[in-house]
Every structure is written in structure tokens, then in C-alpha cells.
Amino acid sequence: MASILIVDDEAEIREMLKQMFTLENYMVYTAKDGQEALDKVSALMGKASVAEDIQAFDENAGLDIILLDINMPEFDGYEVCERIREYVNCPILFLTARIDEEDKVRGFRAGGDDYIEKPFSMVELKERVAAHLRRQERINESEKVGFRGAFTISYSGKQVLFEKEVIHLTKTEYEIVEFLSQHKNQVFTKEMIYEYLWGFDKDGESSIITEHIRRIRQKLKQYSDETMIETVWGVGYKWIG
User: Fold this and answer.
1) Domains, the chain, ranges and CATH?
2) d(Cα 154, Cα 73) in Å, to the nearest integer?
3) Is 52 strand, coil or helix?
4) In whole angstroms, what is the distance from residue 89 CA to residue 85 CA?
């Protein structure tokens, strides 16, 4: 179960988001201002130096992602982000009614990972949070994952190797291999793979995924006749685990 901290000075927004993420099976924590956010991060991460008053609740819970309003009393979202970033590695997503270039630069410099503009779509927010958690999970995985005998994927190095030889894949080809191999035996449509690679707003044709997978197969076949990516006719593709 992933844990999420929702920080917003508007009670209605906190309650609305709490209900949604609770239904999505998240462990949900909330804070109404910057000081309370610091206190709860301190308690969840066990870092007493972040704030003086530590609330004693589930000290081993940890924290997977933070939704952080910018305009709040006590400390604004930028200051909260700057003060906690040293202690947490989880994604921090800013919630704001205003986004201009200066705001974005300030937020990213403070350690934020993304911006969600108010009023936001609940569906998009839910998907953005899930996407950041998936990326974080990939970062946290082990350096190398072996598959099919002598083949190895180095996720941190972003390489596929046969024994010690690097297989030369393009950036997109590698990302497809990474995505499918981290979801073994799950079937994904071309559209789902395309959305993972380029997001909701990217213009283009999902059929190019077919061509990328054809090239990946060609390159892997130079080293082994084993089938790594299986076509599920009429549906999509899956990585054979």
C-alpha cells in the first residue's frame, strides 16, 4: 500500500483528495498548512531535526509521494519543499492555481517533481500520482535484473547486455524493453505503451510501437532465438517472464 501526504489549506480539497486516494487503496495523511506538513513528514520519516514538535503516529509508515499546495499559511509550499527535500526521496507534486515559467523554475529548484494546476481533473491527478510512483519504483529497484540466461537489463545504467556485451538499443527501444520487462506476463496494447513513453498530450501514431518492437526483436535475435516479447494477437504485447 502506497502512502501519500496531502498538504492544502482548503479543507474541502483535503477531504476530496483523501476520499479519492483512500478508495484507491492509499494510506492517506493530510496537513492543513506548512508547519503541520513539516511535523508529519518528520514523524513519518523519523527525522526529528526537520521540526521541533513530532507527532507520534505510525513512525514506521514511511512516505511514498507528497501533494503540496503552494499558497499556504505558516510556510508556503516552496519553503516546505526546500526544508524536507534533504530528508525525503519521494516525488513531490505542487498543487497551484497559477503556473508561469518563474513559478516552475522556483518549484523545480526547491526540489519539486511536477505541477498540477487547479482546478484539476481528478482522473488526471490520480494517473499523474500513479505514474510518479511507478517511476520511483523503477529507480528503487536493484541495479541489474537477469532474464533469459545470459541476458541482463541494467535499469540504472539503461542498458541491455548479453553476457558482458552491450546490445545497442535506441532510447525508445530501451524504454520499451524496460517497461515490458518490469511488468512480466502482463499484456499491454500499443496505445498503453505509447502513452507510457510519451504521455497523454503527445501527438503521434501508436502504430509506431509495432515498428520499434520489430527492431528490438531483430537486435535481440542476433544473440538468441528465445522469444522475449510475445505478440498477443488482437490485443498487444507482453514480456515473457
Assistant:
1) 3-139 (3.40.50.2300), 144-239 (1.10.10.10)
2) 45
3) coil
4) 7
